[in-house]
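Quick board copy: two proteins, each given as sequence then tokens.
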Amino acid sequence: MMKALSKNLNFILLLIKFKFSRMMMFRSDFFLAFFADGALFIVQLLTFEAIYLHLDSIGGWTRGQMIIFVGTFSLINALNMVIYFFGIVDLPDKIRRGDLDKYLTKPGSPLLRLTFENFNVGSIPLIIFSILIIAYGVRVAGVEVSIFLGIGYTFFVLLMTLLWYDMELILRCITFFVLSAGGIMHIESQLIDFNFKVPGILYKGVFRMIFYFILPYGIMSTVPTQLISGSISPGGLIVSALTVIAFTTFALWFWKLGLRHYKSASS
């Protein structure tokens, strides 16, 4: 098991190295990505400042907690953009055109290659800016961050980044079974935008069930924010971790099921 893990890690690092080399061959694209993502972050920040400027609390959350929430969602989104988004975003097109063939015939895991072949260093500034916003929110909230709290927060941010990946993969794998998933991609965009503005603590009843356990965008930024601000129980953390494990297991199973139904361009 450790040998397979080491092999996959080396494969991922090799893909990242090749991507970085290609980007540095076209430096204008490299720096344009830095500028575009930085500008996007500023627009998002100004939007939230306008929304929450005159509010002291939302659903019992203080202004400091809301700032942490905004920064956390931005950080998870930035990690998504850096690590895997540009690798799997056009998976539906690859499935429809039969371009997936070249991934299935090459050595190594086709899913790993799809996921990490377009590692995007241009979005790294978003990670830095997001961390600065989180640090500011922590200061406003008056939270004392210990080493263990910082480690726990980082762990759950990474878990939620994995959950975001699971949702992106699951939704795109639907294209294995239908002709077009354009409507589903549009719904995904709307759900992300909505949950980027509304903390999960505001969901009650059926909406809580939907956005916590069926389309779990509601926990992605909420749970790490609750953790660092001390407003979530150990049981809530366990349930959140189990939710990520369940969706990761399902995403990998759904991917394999989709491959069995894939119609090769040569078939």
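And the next:
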Amino acid sequence: MRKLALVLGVIIGVTLCGCGKVTDSGVADESMPEIGTSELQNQNISDSEASKLQGKNTSDDGTPVSQNPNMSEGDISGTQGKNPSEPQKYTDIEQGGPYGKISISLPDGWDYELCPVDSDKLLSAMYGIHFYPKAADAGYVELAYVDNFGVCGTGLEEETATIAGNSANIGTYDNNTYWDFIAFGEEYRGIVALTYSVDDWWSDYGSQVLDILETLSFDQDDKEGGVYVYSKESEADKIGLSLSLKNISRTGATLVFDQYDAEAPTGDLDYGQEFVLEILKDSKWEEAPIAIDGEYGFNALAFMIPAGERTEVELPWEWLYGELAAGEYRIKKRVMDFRGSGDYDVYTVYAQFILN
């Protein structure tokens, strides 16, 4: 086949430049004799193949090959009858959230999973996208919004780059063959890409990951939903308790008590039905306006928070505050470390959230 291609190349040169060869300068050498059947046979081509090749400088209708409107230059070089490669197909993926919409384009051969707010599939972020090669058995890249991204400096090497038009900090731990995170800056601040269990496929697909990240878009003008925001006021270290929220809507949320240190309380941890909703205005917290007329109250009930466990409770607030407008809010809850009648300590914890 290599010799056949060589002969074809010579024939094309004869066809385009006349009887002769094309020199290094591109000028036809008229001293080269015309190639006949004997010369073709000297190139180890059979008589039948030579007869097919000889005289095929024109098409069946007599049109020179180089001028045949139905034959491209690619046909001349040996691709006759083959369609040009189809362009790479991409799928646009987007995940909305309270800080903005995250979008990327995935080429054929890649798959994804959307991770909205409160998704239990996210390992260290609020919301985002997992993407990975379809051929991979495990592992993925988590592209997500992280409100407070921090890293450990031990064994970490970092470099800066520009990705998707924004500055980015690329971090690699312990001389890994792949990077562990990419933290974006500027207009994409808060967006982080993290690799999880990608060892088996990184050598084949790692370069494509950066190509995919080049298609990243983060539209901070397109916000939706609500999300819990960590603050120091969410924790009461003396009783080993933290308060957070999930399933946030305009009419209510789910309170999540995490009793992370079973030895910290001196008694039983209890909470009641009462709560206060506050709104952030002019950088100051103030009580949200009540939506009902007249007096209101809460039942005098106490609910236990088991030691070392997570406790979830539904908290509707529409009956008291109505449907909330977009803004920054926090829930105020009191928790008692109860040792006995008249013997207890009261702690106040807050759960801050954003609502769009």
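Board note added afterward: The longest strand covers residues 327-340.
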